[in-house]
Each structure stands twice: as C-alpha cells, then as structure tokens.
Amino acid sequence: MPSLAGTSAAAPDPEMLTQVSTYPALQRGQFNGDVTYAQLAQDGDFGLGTFSGLDGEMVALDGVFYQISADGTVRVADAAMTTPFADVHFFHSNQQLRISEPLQNLDQLKAFLAKQLPSPNRPYAFRISGTFPTLKYRSVPKQAEPYPALTDAVAKQVVFEAQNIDAVLVGYMLPEYLGGIGRPGFHFHMISADKSRGGHVLDVSASAATVDIDFLESVKLLIPQNATFQGSNFSQPK
Ligand SMILES: [Zn+2]
Fold it and tell me: Name one GO biological process term (predicted).
C-alpha cells in the first residue's frame, strides 16, 4: 500500500502531537476539512480523526491513513482528501507492557492504562495489539451542509461488533488542561489486523495484548483558516 509519508526538510519531532482544529469546533459541527492528508502525513505516521463532512472514521498506522465509512468498508485515504479534525504524531514506543489480566470493558482498560502513567499531565499515545474477545466500534455517515452539531451527527452512528478479532487499538490520552483544544481523557480508534474492519472504539474486552506507550512532550495546533472557524464566538454556545 502506498504511504502518504513524504519527505520533509526538517526532521519531525517524534514526541510532538499535532492536532487539526479543536474539539469544541468539531462539536459545533465545523466539519469542512482544512488540512489535506498529504499535509497531515508530514506531522505523523500514527493517529486518529475524521474526514471532511464527517465522512467516516480515520485511523493512521505505520504511515498509512485509513478511512472507515459508515458502511464499514475500509480504504486507504487519498492524499488530496481533507480532515476537519485529527490527532497524529510519529509513534515511538517509550514503554512496552503486556495485558495479562482479563479486562472486561473499555473503562477497565482505561483504568489499567491510567495506572501505568507517571503523570496525568502530559499527552500519551497507545498502540495496543492483540486478539480482543469482544470489540464494539462505530463509524459515522457523511453529513450535508448546513452541518448539525456533533452529538446530532453521532446519533446516526453505525455500530459494529466483533468477537476474537485480531486488531490494533490506536489511541491517545489528553490531559485535562487541553480541554479547550482537545477532548481530555482516552480516545481509541481501531483497525483489524487484516485491515478489513475499523472505527471509533465504543467498548472492548482484553485478556492478552501488547501495549506500547509513547510519552509525548509538546502539542502543535493547526488552526483552521476557514471563515466559519475564524468567525465563531467560542465563548458562546452555538
Ligand atoms: Zn473517535
């Protein structure tokens, strides 16, 4: 599969998280893409997000950006496609550990991971590989303008469930103080090992999996230049 990762003059900072737009803007239904996937690939080979018009879920793994549509199909994103919201970085594992105890659900996975983190006050990335006894995930259908708020769009999500699925969870934990920019807490997308299934993780159980944790040190925000974002009053509810 072709990689979108291009050649850049300056060496990228491996410990820098790059985010496109803000979560509050996404919540307001600002779904028009501002950044191409060719641009995004300059800032990372790993990550999660969505596509212009909220046209499915995005997972980036090993430099390949995947689009998971609401019908569940997975395809490699075209470099010219754009995103209204994404988190990416270059993944380098700082710590590897095994999950060897049964974790019954996503909350237990979050609690397990939170115990491994030396501080809640930095971003972390997680790459979790294994065979998951149960995995519940979703994608979202493309929205038409005028765009609804995110909660109304997500109400039309399509939910999928898999059992004993070989997959990789791609996730981040953002600290509380990034709340005006990102969504604090854990956020996971997933892609199956055979790249046939994927989406935003709603629930998961695990009994044996490998967790790689990347400790991040800085955040770069790509501020949308479009008129909707620039004209918004973020101190007011939409
Ligand atoms: Zn998501």
Answer: acetoin biosynthetic process
